[in-house]
Structure formats: structure tokens, C-alpha cells
């Protein structure tokens, strides 16, 4: 994938703030060259340090204040720069937002992915909600689409957000557990707040364990408005769809990755961009004309705990986003980026969603503490490309040197500038929504159904997805101490689906409930990961396991075939260095297999070679490596003499044809030694593209 285009205005502006520490001499903050940075100024070689050592004082002072408060939620993140471009069928008739209406514009973006619960030092792979925040640096100002990888949220009203986060975070008496929903306070809150149930179903699904940020959907969650030049409004929901498809880890795998590589998702994003395999996403919109606002019997558009199935309102593809550049400095960009839900441009406006309204206050308020004052927008990563002119002044972190005397409006001493744009000058105009009603602390009855959509989600899942959801509930609720919380949760699940409640109850020591209510039977194929794109191996990590005596030609042929298709291939040997192939050639090993685990790869491949096969079969770690990959439903390929591994690992041998080739549920075998057949390569590549093969070991759950 190519990203050949001239630097954007944003990139040019950011370049002015970059400093390469390799340029010139070491200096203080004041530009004074430093003589020595290894020894403090002393009164004699063994005497006390002198207060006059300004370099020491500055160096320690700066170090003592390096840390800023981390985000309360979404603290652990990874970011990337890129661009967005709307398709030719633009939205100019629906919105005055130029970046959505002009297909000739390539809008710079910065995206930050994150986990919700854990702190900055937590691992990448817990069961958790993922943040998916996108900043568009448009010519009309910054637009921040601050979403998650799930289309709904836990609560309907922002006044409950502190309660939710307090319940979700480590418990106050012992600061345990970190980055985990498996604790008493979270499930106590959920059991008493049934509006959370829809999001909890998503949290218990594989959506909470993304394989990669490159393979993760994003959603704006709330209903927003698009407003056109005539003032006509269209309700809109934002969707990001990755071109690589939506893929996940499995629970056991995710747990092991957190120990082997806690930076797994962060590293994957960084390395993909460095390798030129730029993550791509398609922006899709669900567009609802204003007159259809009340057409949905079980969904209020202002309720962020509900979604509109794509079968009811299709997602219209409108543009493409490519992430093609890693940050130059993590702190300056990924950590200091200050997303704000209230950053909108003309043509995009808010609705009366109570959670959205609270976020409009909370996000900018948070940045006052995190970034030390009201001037966070002057940091390079937060600066808009649109011209900035206003009458604000002073405060912590002020970097702009204002000129002139007039810091107020109206004025004559500054020729009345800057002037108010008004509507004709492109000024932001809020949609004139009519509002009637008495102040009251109540919610609309259209928000009262908390069970139909969790049932919709359950009905939409494939058999293996349902199995994973049941297992997740059993694990997380199984950690809950108070029995009454477990019992109440099973009662809620019974209102979602009776069979779900029975299966969970059986695993957590709670009496299975009597049937209550009927499953409405509706589902949405779009909610399942089982039916997404399965056509690419781009960016997939494949481990080719080798040892001395390996069939070198076969290993080289397979590596070339996979690399040509965009896979990232590593040769794993008994030790770092090289192995000697059967023909005497030296093969460079990427890393020693004992230092990595199968959980770090998407697929495993074992070439033939008699001596290599003998060595591998006798190596318990290799046997475990292959068996574990199979257990996690990953593609496994074996060739020639390496088929003896199937016996050692107790994996089933697929039926073989006359050429010794066979494939079954992602296990691809070619027993005959010699040139790798096209059938093997095609089958193995297809097995990787399909991601996982969960039909291998799905326990029976009645359809």
C-alpha cells in the first residue's frame, strides 16, 4: 500500500516543533552549551555539591516533573498519523463539513487506540473496551470523533459515569484488580443497573479481545447530526470498518500474551506501519432523515445503550482512512493529544443524548488538570491547521505572543479584529432544535427496555461466539464473591435468553432459573465476527518452525509465497543464529523458539526433513507450541516427515488424496516430500485468511 503524497500543512507545521537531539551540542533549556553532564559541580573532588550548579538543578527539576496525570480512563494508548479522503459520492448535500463534501481534499488525521480500564503501565490484551479516537485536522477546524470499538455504551446518562468508572476500576480498599471486569464492585453495579446489560454482552464477547488495532471496528456510539447549507438535518451514526476484517484473540491466548508481550497490540500497530503495511479503515455512516426519528419501535436515537441494526438502516461507505506514519515522540503526541467531544466543525452538531451532553463538559474539563491549563490546544499535536484568532489570553502554557493592545470585543484600537464570522462567513451555527419541557430528573419511557437489544446481540452470534460468551461470563462471574450478585446476574441473563442463563448458572454454582419471557428471535448478521471479510493474510504473523536437517527448499518456497502475499514470516529454530538445511545450506533463524510462544503468531508451519522432524518431535516445547496453536484454532501446516508431529501432539490427520495432500478445519498437510504443491499453498493461505477455525472444538450449544 502506497502513501505517496506531498506533506500536509499539518505535517509542515509539526516539523517546526521537532528537535533532533543529534543536532549540535548538548545544551540547557536556555541554549547554554554543557561542559559535562556526568559529574556535579563540587567543592573539591570529594566535597559537597554546590548550589551554583544550574545544570544539575535543571536536570533534576525536569526529571522530577516528567510525569503528568494519566487519563482516568483510556490511559494506555497507541497512536498513529494518517489521512482521510471522502469518496466521489460525497456528502455535500447532507453537510457543510468540507472534509466530508470535497473528494479532492486529503485531510490529516491522528488516531489514538486505547484500553478503558487499566493504567498506562497495564497490558494491551485484557478483556476490555477499546478506545478508537480520531482527530481530523480540517480546514474548518479540528473535528474529534471520540469513539470505541463497540457501538453502545454502559449507561444512558453521564451523571452515572463516575459511578460506572468507580465500580469498574480497581477497588478502593486494596487497588485490586487491575484491568479486569472480574471483581465484586463491577458486577454489583451491573446487577443493579440493567441498562448496562447490552454493553456487558459485548464485553463478554470476543469483541473485547481484538487481535490487532488494524482489525478492530470503531463506532461513534452516539447519534450526531449532519446539517447542510439549507439548515436541513440528518441524524448520523459513525462506523469505522477495517479493510483487513474484524478479528479477535481467544481468552486463554490473550492471558498468555499479557505475560509474553504486554505491548502486543501497540507493537503490532507500530511494526505494521514501519513495514509499510498501513492500516486502512472505511468510514461508513448510518443516515436517518429527521422525519424518521421515531420510526424505530425499540430504539430511541438518543439512547447510547442501543444500536440500529444494519439490516434496518444500512451503513453507507463514504470515505477511506489510512494510517501511514508513527509518532516521532510518544509523550509529545500520543500522550498529550487532547481529544474533545465538543470539537466539531460546521455541518456536524450534537443531539440531546444525555451521555453525549455530559461528555461535552467532561472532556475539556479533564484536560485542564492533565495538561496544566487552558492552552492545551497550542501543543503541536492539538493545533488545528485552520487559522486561530481569538481574544483569550494568558494562563499556564501560553505559547502565543500576542501583538497589539485590544484583547476584547468589540474594539476600535485593533481595528475591530478579529471579527465575528457570522453565518455568511462560515461561522459555526448550532442547529435550532426546538426544546420544550419542565426541568425534571426522569428519563423517557423510550429508554426503559434494557433486555431486547442484549437478546438481539445473543441471537446474532455464531455457535462458537456463543460458547466464548458463556465461558467469559463463567470466568468473570466466577470471581465474584457475594453469591447474591451472581444470582441477580443470572436472573438478568434469563431475561435475555433462558439457555444463556442456564449455561452460565451451571458454571458459577447458581441454581438455574425457571424460564422467564420469550426470546424475540431477531438477530443481525452484521454483529457477528463469523461473517466478515476473509480474503487477506496481510500483516499476519506466521511462524515457520525449523531445525538442523530441515528441507530448506520447502521452507524457502513457503516463506516466499507467504511474504509475497503480505504475511510477516519468522523462522523459529532451537537457538538464535542459523540452522543447517538437509542440503548443507545455512538458514538464518529469526529467533529461538524457546523465547517466544505460539500466542504471538497467527499461524504455524512446519516443513519436512527427516533429521529436523526427529529433533522437533523430541522437543517438548515444540510439541507444545504446535498443539497450543491448534488449541487456539489457528492454522497449522505440516509437510513431509514433519507429519510425525501430528501423532506426538495428538492432532487428527486429515484424509489425504493420492498426492498426499489433505486439509480439514485449518490443518493443512502434505505428506509426500518434494516440491510444495499449489494445493498446499492455496489451502494454507486460505486457512490464514479465515483467521480461526473454531469448529474444531465447539461444545454443543443448542441452536
From TrEMBL:
Which GO annotations describe the biological process of this protein?
hydrogen peroxide catabolic process; response to oxidative stress
Which SMART domains does the entry link to? Catalase (SM01060)
Q: Which cofactor does it need?
A: heme
- Per its UniProt record, what SUPFAM superfamilies does this chain match? Class I glutamine amidotransferase-like, Heme-dependent catalase-like
Annotated catalysed reactions: 2 H2O2 = O2 + 2 H2O
Alphabetically sorted, this entry's keywords are: Heme, Hydrogen peroxide, Iron, Metal-binding, Oxidoreductase, Peroxidase
Give its E.C. classification number. Answer: 1.11.1.6
Which major enzyme category is it? oxidoreductase
Tell me the PANTHER family matching this sequence.
Answer: CATALASE (PTHR42821), CATALASE-B (PTHR42821:SF1)
Function noted in UniProt: Decomposes hydrogen peroxide into water and oxygen; serves to protect cells from the toxic effects of hydrogen peroxide.
| Membership in a protein family | Belongs to the catalase family. HPII subfamily.
Q: What's the protein here called?
A: Catalase
Amino acid at each position: 500500500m502506497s502513501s505517496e503524497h506531498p506533506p500536509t500543512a499539518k505535517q509542515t507545521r509539526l516539523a517546526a516543533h521537532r528537535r533532533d537531539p543529534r543536532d549540535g551540542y548538548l545544551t540547557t533549556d536556555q541554549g547554554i552549551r554543557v561542559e559535562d553532564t556526568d559529574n556535579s559541580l563540587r567543592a573539591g573532588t570529594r566535597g559537597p555539591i554546590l548550589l551554583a550548579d544550574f545544570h544539575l538543578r535543571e536536570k533534576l527539576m525536569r526529571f522530577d516533573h516528567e510525569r503528568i496525570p494519566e487519563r482516568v480512563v483510556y490511559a494506555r494508548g497507541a497512536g498513529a498519523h494518517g489521512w482521510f479522503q471522502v469518496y466521489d459520492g460525497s456528502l455535500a448535500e447532507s453537510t457543510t463539513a468540507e472534509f466530508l463534501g470535497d473528494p479532492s481534499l486529503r485531510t490529516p488525521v491522528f488516531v489514538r487506540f486505547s484500553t478503558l480500564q487499566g493504567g498506562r503501565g497495564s497490558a494491551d490484551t485484557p478483556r476490555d473496551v477499546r478506545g478508537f479516537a480520531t482527530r481530523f485536522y480540517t480546514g474548518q477546524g479540528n473535528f474529534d470523533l471520540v469513539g470505541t470499538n463497540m457501538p453502545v455504551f454502559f449507561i444512558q446518562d453521564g451523571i452515572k459515569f463516575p459511578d460506572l468508572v468507580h465500580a469498574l476500576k480497581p477497588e478502593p480498599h486494596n487497588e485490586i484488580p487491575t484491568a479486569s471486569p472480574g471483581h465484586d464492585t463491577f458486577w454489583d453495579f451491573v446487577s443493579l443497573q440493567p441498562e448496562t446489560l447490552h454493553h456487558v454482552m459485548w464485553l463478554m464477547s470476543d469483541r473485547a479481545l481484538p487481535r490487532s488495532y488494524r482489525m478492530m471496528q470503531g463506532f461513534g456510539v452516539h447519534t450526531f447530526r449532519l446539517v447542510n447549507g439549507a439548515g436541513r438535518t440528518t441524524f448520523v451514526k459513525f462506523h469505522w470498518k477495517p479493510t483487513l476484517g474484524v478479528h479477535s484473540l481467544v481468552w486463554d491466548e490473550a492471558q498468555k500474551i499479557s505475560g509474553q508481550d504486554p505491548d502486543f497490540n501497540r507493537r503490532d500497530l507500530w511494526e505494521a506501519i514501519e513495514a509499510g503495511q498501513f492500516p486502512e479503515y472505511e468510514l461508513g455512516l448510518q443516515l436517518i432523515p429527521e422525519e424518521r426519528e421515531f420510526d424505530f419501535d425499540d430504539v430511541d436515537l438518543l439512547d447510547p445503550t442501543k444500536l440500529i441494526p444494519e439490516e434496518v438502516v444500512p451503513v453507507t461507505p463514504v470515505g477511506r482512512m489510512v494510517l501511514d506514519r508513527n509518532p516521532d515522540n510518544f509523550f509529545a503526541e500520543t500522550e498529550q493529544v487532547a481529544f474533545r467531544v465538543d470539537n466539531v466543525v460546521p455541518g456536524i452538531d450534537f443531539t440531546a443524548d444525555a451521555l453525549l451532553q455530559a461528555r461535552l463538559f467532561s472532556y475539556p474539563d479533564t484536560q485542564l488538570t492533565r495538561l496544566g491549563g487552558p492552552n492545551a490546544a497550542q501543543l503541536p499535536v492539538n493545533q488545528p491547521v485552520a487559522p486561530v484568532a481569538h481574544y483569550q489570553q494568558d494562563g499556564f502554557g501560553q505559547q502565543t505572543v500576542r501583538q497589539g493592545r485590544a484583547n476584547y470585543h468589540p474594539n476600535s484600537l485593533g481595528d475591530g479584529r478579529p471579527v465575528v464570522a457570522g453565518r455568511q462567513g462560515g461561522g459555526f451555527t448550532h442547529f435550532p432544535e426546538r426544546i420544550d419541557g419542565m426541568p425534571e430528573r426522569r428519563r423517557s419511557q423510550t429508554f426503559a427496555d434494557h433486555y431486547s437489544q442484549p437478546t438481539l446481540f445473543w441471537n446474532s452470534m455464531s455457535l462458537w461466539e456463543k460458547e466464548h460468551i458463556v465461558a467469559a461470563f463463567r470466568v468473570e462471574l466466577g470471581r465474584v464473591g457475594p453469591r447474591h450478585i451472581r444470582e441477580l446476574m443470572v436472573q438478568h441473563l434469563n431475561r435475555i435468553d433462558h439457555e444463556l442463563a442456564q449455561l452460565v448458572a451451571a458454571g458459577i454454582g447458581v441454581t438455574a432459573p425457571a424460564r422467564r419471557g420469550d426470546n424475540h428471535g431477531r438477530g443481525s448478521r452484521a454483529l457477528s465476527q463469523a461473517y466478515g471479510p476473509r480474503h487477506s493474510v496481510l500483516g499476519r504473523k506466521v511462524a515457520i518452525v525449523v531445525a538442523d536437517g530441515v528441507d530448506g527448499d520447502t521452507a524457502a518456497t513457503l516463506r516466499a509465497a507467504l511474504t509475497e502475499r503480505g504475511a510477516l514470516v519468522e523462522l523459529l529454530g532451537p537457538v538464535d543464529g542459523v540452522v543447517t538445511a538437509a542440503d548443507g545450506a545455512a538458514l538464518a533463524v529469526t529467533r529461538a523458539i524457546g523465547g517466544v510462544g505460539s500466542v504471538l503468531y497467527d499461524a504455524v508451519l512446519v516443513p519436512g526433513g527427516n533429521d529436523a522432524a526427529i529433533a522437533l518431535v523430541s522437543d517438548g516445547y515444540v510439541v507444545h507450541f504446535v498443539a497450543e496453536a491448534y488449541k487456539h484454532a489457528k492454522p497449522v501446516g505440516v509437510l513431509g516427515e514433519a507429519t510425525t508431529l501430528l501423532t506426538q501432539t495428538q492432532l487428527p490427520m486429515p484424509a489425504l488424496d493420492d498426492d498426499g495432500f489433505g486439509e480439514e478445519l485449518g490443518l493443512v498437510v502434505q505428506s509426500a516430500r518434494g516440491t510444495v504443491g499449489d494445493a498446499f499453498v492455496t489451502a494454507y493461505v486460505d486457512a490464514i485468511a479465515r483467521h480461526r477455525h473454531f469448529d474444531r472444538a465447539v461444545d454443543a450449544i443448542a441452536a
